[in-house]
């Protein structure tokens, strides 16, 4: 499936009443695993991608070059539409235009841009500050004007709730929609009542960020759909599960000097070979054997 078709598919899916649930992918194993499960959309998590690729916190340390490299790799390895974290656009308005062009050409179905000051921080961690509303509106306008494919989704995120309150976050969301955002992302609402208020306020498709252990209540997708949300992302679930599994199996190797007691909990090696495409390699070898 080419990138243009993926974008058309995502835009059409977001127009449907049933909520989209998008798992977070952060490396190529997680990308291929999620891609094999026929989700409607995947989400490239900044936290997980920076952690897996650079071994660093998601605190503005990854560059545009780092991230577009990952976007290219993830999109090239998957057939599912992928929304990719574009942080603040990696600078001013010219940087935003460059970032949108790069993500679009890399094959992304959409880009998430946020209104944090640089250096940005993960949305469920403390110390986040936001830029002036007018400055972010300009970024959204530039992003919408720059994209070549009108189906490329501009996801506009505000982190104003934590530092300036919900009313300011809602005001920003309205301004972002008028500026050309396709999807609104009000980060870190802290109660069910706040989720209800957000859903009542907008007609534009809404994204909600579900982080296990984060600030936002973890409602079931069906309940989020009833409120009016169009897409729920689960950015941390995958890398938190992997980290726990690695802790367990490495702990067993250290304590037991092997994995005899953990074999039944491991993903089968044969299935991993299939997931990574070895059958095609083996078939090629058979066809071209000397």
UniProtKB/TrEMBL annotation:
It comes from Paraburkholderia monticola. GO terms for molecular function: oxo-acid-lyase activity. Pfam families: PEP_mutase (PF13714). InterPro entries: ICL/PEPM, Pyrv/PenolPyrv_kinase-like_dom, Pyrv_kinase-like_dom_sf. SUPFAM superfamilies: Phosphoenolpyruvate/pyruvate domain (SSF51621). It comes from the Bacteria. This is Carboxyvinyl-carboxyphosphonate phosphorylmutase.
